[in-house]
Amino acid sequence: MSDIPTDAEAVSGWWRTSIIDMAPGKIAFRGRPVEELIGNVSFAQMIWLMTRGELPDAGQAALLEAALVAGVDHGPQAPSIAAARMAATCGVGLNNAMATAVNMLGDVHGGAGEQCAELYYGIAALMDAGADLPQAVPSGLDNWRSRHGKIVSGFGHRFHKPVDPRAPRLMALVREAAEAGVVSGRFAEIGETVQAELARQRGGRPIAMNIDGATAVIFCELGFEAPLSRGLFCLSRSVGVLAHAWEQTQQGGRNKGPMPPKFLPRYEGE
């Protein structure tokens, strides 16, 4: 029998997926017919199914949903939201305005959750290798800073000092989930110990665990790999982006820039 694929085999094998089985009259996600999922699973459960290949239990889904709800918006002062609103005044559709915003969610604005998850997983790896938590946290911070710099993603906030109001609520939900056996609570301990260590390094001045630090705890507790933290944040923030783009569309305005026309950028040339 020839090992050379036929044209049909070559075409059908060009893309390979375990996510969807789709044919005329058939749609199944991860082996589950779509008609059985519609009306029976939540959007958070669907996100889990699509990214992880299985359905979460109710407690896992509730914790994921809490993280998604917490990150939906942070106002027009957030660069991505501002960009979406500006795009909406330029005559583009909602999808274009949303894409403008999501494309801005990079390492500096939007990527902190992924970076914080990397920190937490790095500390957990040190603990798995034999270090206790008080030893692993400073070492993990040193390792992380050697790659990313001195500012630790997930901690500190330019507006919310000394407390980001979203983080304590999320951490309380993690603790409840740990008590119920939904998650281990290990990454909650890691996150809070990192926060305490950063405060110690600042001479005792408190520092907020921000939304990225708290959602990273949840994503790690639920077993999502670090890069998915950014994708999940993009899904969450897209809700706020949509709302702001639609609101701006309703308000009207044309070609709105980043500041009112009477204010001009400072010219520093000759």
UniProtKB/TrEMBL annotation:
Biological classification of the source: Bacteria, Pseudomonadati, Pseudomonadota, Alphaproteobacteria, Rhodobacterales
Highest taxon of source: Bacteria
GO cellular component, one term: cytosol
Organism: Palleronia caenipelagi
Family stated for the protein in its record: Belongs to the citrate synthase family.
Any single GO BP term: tricarboxylic acid cycle
Protein name stated in the entry: citrate synthase (unknown stereospecificity)
InterPro entries in alphabetical order: Citrate_synth-like_lrg_a-sub (IPR016142), Citrate_synth-like_sm_a-sub (IPR016143), Citrate_synthase (IPR002020), Citrate_synthase_sf (IPR036969)
Pathway: Carbohydrate metabolism; tricarboxylic acid cycle; isocitrate from oxaloacetate: step 1/2
Record region (Disordered): 250-270
NCBIfam families (UniProt xref): PRK06224.1-1 (NF004864)
Pfam families registered for this protein in UniProt: Citrate_synt
PANTHER family, sorted: CITRATE SYNTHASE (PTHR11739), CITRATE SYNTHASE, PEROXISOMAL (PTHR11739:SF4)
Keyword set, alphabetical order: Lyase, Transferase
E.C. designation(s): 2.3.3.16
GO terms, molecular function: citrate synthase activity; lyase activity
